[in-house]
């Protein structure tokens, strides 16, 4: 199996160009960039859980600028209201009518910064956007732009005054992963790049939003063999049967893993998904979708370890019948 820390060799020319452009700003994080693009191309969303200052915001901004996307950042705070996210109707004395003022969520790429610092009521304002691609205000449903992706962040260190995301909302995120600290050589490269001017200021679009929409359509055409679908189901079902798990992955987890596999295969210029695609992506797509039981929480067991055990135990379909 490919090492989890190793990025794949992206061969699709447009995706490769996009990754190279983002890497002008983000140093040494090709795997994380790749996972973010998988989410974008499969219509999913990303939860980044890491300490401040490791480049989460820069990665999102670089991605948005690279495709000419409408980008908005929402700083989640305890006093943030749902209408501050979705938008609000404002009465105009000039026209004597209410006019809708769109909220920041009505953009192509949204950075939901420190999402666990706001109240559950405001967190829930994102639920419809994450799942349905729309928001409902004043009884009217408004469709969001395509493409649309939310990249949310939360700090795993400071839990004081935070509101942990409920399971129903965590399940709406395709991936959860960390950025991580750079190596010494990578950090030196970061210092050299920002010494005189930040590279984000020089990033220009290399693709258009129309290119992304077209690629999303092509992703949905990537073939998934019945054996691969069974493999996905077996992995998710194994999370429900694991002795350390109180609540395993839902059918939504199976759907997410399949869609991620399609996008991953597309990025490697393949027209079909192979079992190794699923095996590689499973830890990122499933670790936040399971709840450990009380005994496991008291031990050294982690969600990551459970998913690793599950992936190692489930039989991998072999032969050409598992591909085409």
Q: Helical segment tally?
A: 14
Mean pLDDT score, rounded?
A: 90
Gap between N and C termini, in Å? 20 Å
- Strand arrangement within the widest β-sheet reads 2-5-8-1-9
- Main sheet makeup: 5 strands, parallel
Outline: globular
Query: Which regions have little confidence, pLDDT < 50, spanning 5+ residues?
Result: 1-5
Instruction: Label the CATH architecture of the domain at 222-318.
Output: Orthogonal Bundle
Share in β-strands: 5-15%
Percentage of helical residues? 40-55%
CATH fold descriptor of the domain at 222-318: Helicase, Ruva Protein, domain 3
Instruction: Return Rg in Å.
Output: 20 Å
- By CATH, the superfamily of the domain at 222-318 comes out as Magnesium chelatase subunit I, C-Terminal domain
Order of helix and strand elements from N to C terminus: HHEHEHEEEHHEEEHEHHHEHHEHH
Query: What's the CATH class label of the domain at 222-318?
Result: Mainly Alpha
Tally of strands: 11
Protein structure class: alpha/beta
């Amino acid at each position: 199996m490919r090492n989890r820390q190793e990025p794949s060799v992206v061969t699709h020319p447009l995706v490769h160009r996009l990754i190279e452009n983002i890497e002008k700003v983000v140093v040494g994080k090709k795997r994380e960039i790749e996972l973010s693009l998988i989410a974008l191309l499969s219509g999913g969303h990303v939860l980044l859980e890491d300490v401040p200052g490791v480049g989460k915001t820069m990665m999102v901004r670089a991605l948005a600028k690279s495709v000419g996307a409408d980008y908005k950042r929402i700083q989640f705070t305890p006093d943030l209201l749902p209408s501050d996210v979705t938008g609000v109707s404002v009465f105009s004395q000039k026209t004597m009518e209410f006019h809708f003022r769109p909220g920041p969520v009505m953009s192509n790429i949204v950075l939901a910064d420190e999402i666990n610092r706001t109240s559950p009521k405001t967190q829930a304002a994102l639920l419809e956007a994450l799942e349905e691609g729309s928001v409902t205000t004043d009884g009217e449903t408004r469709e969001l732009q395509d493409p649309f992706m939310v990249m949310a962040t939360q700090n795993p260190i400071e839990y004081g005054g935070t509101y942990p995301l409920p399971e129903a909302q965590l399940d709406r995120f395709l991936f959860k992963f960390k950025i991580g600290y750079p190596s010494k050589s990578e950090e030196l490269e970061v210092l050299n790049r920002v010494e005189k001017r930040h590279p984000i200021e020089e990033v220009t679009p290399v693709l258009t939003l129309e290119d992304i929409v077209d690629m999303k359509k092509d992703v949905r055409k990537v073939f998934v063999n019945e054996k691969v679908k069974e493999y996905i189901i077996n992995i998710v079902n194994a999370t429900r049967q694991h002795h350390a798990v109180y609540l395993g992955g839902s059918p939504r987890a199976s759907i997410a893993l399949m869609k991620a596999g399609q996008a991953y295969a597309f990025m490697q210029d393949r027209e079909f998904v192979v079992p190794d695609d699923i095996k590689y992506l499973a830890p990122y797509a499933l670790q936040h979708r399971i709840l450990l039981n009380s005994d496991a929480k008291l031990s050294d067991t982690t969600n990551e370890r459970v998913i690793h055990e599950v992936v190692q135990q489930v039989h991998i379909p072999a032969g050409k019948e598992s591909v085409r």
